[in-house]
From TrEMBL:
Family recorded in the similarity comment: Belongs to the OMP decarboxylase family. Type 1 subfamily.
PROSITE patterns: OMPDECASE
One GO MF term: orotidine-5'-phosphate decarboxylase activity
Pfam families from the UniProt entry: OMPdecase
InterPro entries: Aldolase_TIM, OMPdecase, OMPdecase_arc, OMPdecase_AS, OMPdeCOase_dom, RibuloseP-bd_barrel
Subunit record text: Homodimer.
Keyword Lyase: yes
Active site per the UniProt annotation: 58 (for ompdecase activity), 60 (proton donor), 60 (for ompdecase activity), 63 (for ompdecase activity)
Protein name as it appears in the record: Orotidine 5'-phosphate decarboxylase
Protein task: Catalyzes the decarboxylation of orotidine 5'-monophosphate (OMP) to uridine 5'-monophosphate (UMP).
Gene Ontology process terms (BP): 'de novo' UMP biosynthetic process
Pathway this chain belongs to: Pyrimidine metabolism; UMP biosynthesis via de novo pathway; UMP from orotate: step 2/2
Species name: Methanoculleus oceani
Amino acid sequence: MTELILSLDVLDRKRAVQIAESCAPFIDEIKVGYPLVLSAGLSIVEDLAGLGLPLIADFKVADIPNTNRLICEAVFAAGFDAVIAHGFVGADAARACVEVAHNHSGAAYIVAEMSHPGATEFFHGGVAESLAELAVACRADGIIAPATRPERIARLREIVGEKAIYSPGVGAQGGDPDTVARLVDGVIVGRSIYEAEDPAAEAERFSRIRR
Ligand code: O7M
């Protein structure tokens, strides 16, 4: 079954926790990124940990190997279970994230191609394919690929094989959940759920689509 990952890009701490709690029965993981951590503080991780769902740190880590290592050590010390990193910084830097994740029995995912329109300015001509190959070579646990371009997911699947593909861009960005759910291991959904009048009902609806 395709996983449902809630992208909790909510700025208010109390609302973030409320949404996460109400959606918890219908989701498999929670992705937390800069919007929430910079607004609520890193201790939001402690508030969410009680839900018993894996927490993914979407910091799209993109620095030199030593700095990547320091960032990822802080991520896992805070209580996250997985981290998302960029691959364009090179194999040594990406591998630093993977090593730290695995040392903490966690996971690391590499961004292969992004979902927004502007992504095509740079993720073309084989760049995404190279990033997917890098993810495999670095022994990352999977890649991020765009729900807005299902044909690209299919192409990247040829490269990563059975590694996980997590895909943002359904709903608010226009990607069709039915199409994408068949191609990926997990769909990442933010606004369609957390901006809904009833986020739990919307999460439940997405959880039925992915079966
Ligand atoms: O459903 P949305 O559009 O409200 O939210 C999508 C989330 O996925 C949001 O947190 C984005 O930052 C993230 N995302 C993309 O939308 N596109 C990408 O290409 C990559 C990501 C992402 O999660 O990267 C790890």
